[in-house]
C-alpha cells in the first residue's frame, strides 16, 4: 500500500533515493522495483534488518532491474550520515508527526537533496486525525506516537521556510480513515471487536485484490476523508527568494 503516487512523483532509472523513516519499507521496495539506487533509513534496527532481508530476496527473485541498488541502514533523521546534495529524491512518509524537531528534519532533508531534486512528504490529514485524537487518548499518547496534527497550510509553510518549492498535493487512503475511527472507538489494542475485524478484512481484500468497487470508492473518498495528506516539492537550484 503506497501513499506516494508515483504517477505524480515519477522516478528515473538510476535516481538516488532516500526513504527516511522507511518503516517496513513499502516505498523503498517500490523505488527499487523502478530501478532507483535506494537508501532506506530508520532508527528501528529490527525493521531495518527486515527491510535488508526483503531487498536481498527481491534481488534474488529478479524483481529489480539491472543497475538498481538497495541499502538499508539505521540512522538519525536529525543527523543524516550523508554529504550535502547526495540524493535526487527524498521520501518521508508518516514520520514527521512523530518528531519534536520537525524543522530540524526538514533542514537535514534539504541539505542532502540535490538542487533540482524532489521530495515527497506524507503526514496524517488534519480532519481524520483530529477525530482519532478525540475518540482515543491511547491513539496518540503511546511512547513514540503522534505528537502533532498538521494542517495542510502549516506543513506547506514549513516546507517553504526550509527552502523547498511545493508543486502538488493530494490525499490518500480514504478507505482507511473509518477503520482507524473504529479502532479508536473500540480501543486501539482491541482487534477482536467485530466491526474492527470486519473492516480489517475489507482493507486486506482491497490491498490484495484491488477490486474496481473499492478502488472507485477510495478515489471518491480521498478528497473528503483521505487518511493521509501528501505534498510534493522541489529544491530550487537557487535558494527560494534569491535573485536570478
Automatic annotation (TrEMBL):
One of its GO terms (biological process) is methylation. Keywords: Methyltransferase, Transferase. Gene3D superfamilies: Vaccinia Virus protein VP39. Pfam families: Methyltransf_11. Residues 18-121 form the Methyltransferase type domain. GO terms for molecular function: methyltransferase activity. This is SAM-dependent methyltransferase. It comes from Streptomyces amritsarensis. The lineage of its organism: Bacteria, Bacillati, Actinomycetota, Actinomycetes, Kitasatosporales.
Amino acid at each position: 500500500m503506497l501513499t506516494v503516487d508515483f504517477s505524480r512523483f515519477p522516478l528515473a532509472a538510476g535516481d538516488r533515493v532516500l526513504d527516511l523513516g522507511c518503516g517496513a519499507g513499502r516505498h523503498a521496495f517500490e523505488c527499487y522495483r523502478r530501478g532507483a539506487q535506494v537508501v532506506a533509513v530508520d532508527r528501528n534496527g529490527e525493521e531495518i534488518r527486515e527491510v535488508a532481508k526483503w531487498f536481498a530476496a527481491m534481488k534474488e527473485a529478479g524483481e529489480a532491474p539491472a543497475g538498481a541498488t538497495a541499502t538499508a541502514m539505521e540512522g538519525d533523521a536529525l543527523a543524516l550520515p550523508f554529504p550535502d546534495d547526495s540524493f535526487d529524491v527524498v521520501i518521508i512518509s508518516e514520520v514527521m508527526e512523530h518528531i519534536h524537531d520537525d524543522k530540524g528534519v526538514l533542514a537535514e532533508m534539504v541539505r542532502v537533496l540535490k538542487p533540482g531534486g524532489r521530495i515527497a512528504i506524507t503526514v496524517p490529514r488534519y480532519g481524520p486525525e483530529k477525530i482519532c485524537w478525540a475518540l482515543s487518548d491511547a491513539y496518540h499518547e503511546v511512547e513514540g506516537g503522534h505528537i502533532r496534527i498538521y494542517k495542510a497550510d502549516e506543513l506547506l509553510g514549513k516546507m517553504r521556510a526550509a527552502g523547498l518549492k511545493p508543486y502538488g498535493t493530494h490525499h490518500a487512503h480514504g478507505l482507511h480513515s473509518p477503520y482507524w475511527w473504529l479502532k479508536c472507538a473500540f480501543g486501539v489494542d482491541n482487534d477482536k471487536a467485530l466491526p474492527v475485524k470486519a473492516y480489517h478484512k475489507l482493507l486486506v481484500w482491497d490491498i490484495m485484490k484491488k477490486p474496481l468497487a473499492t478502488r472507485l470508492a477510495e478515489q471518491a473518498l480521498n478528497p473528503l476523508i483521505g487518511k493521509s495528506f501528501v505534498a510534493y516539492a522541489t529544491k530550487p537550484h537557487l535558494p527560494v527568494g534569491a535573485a536570478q
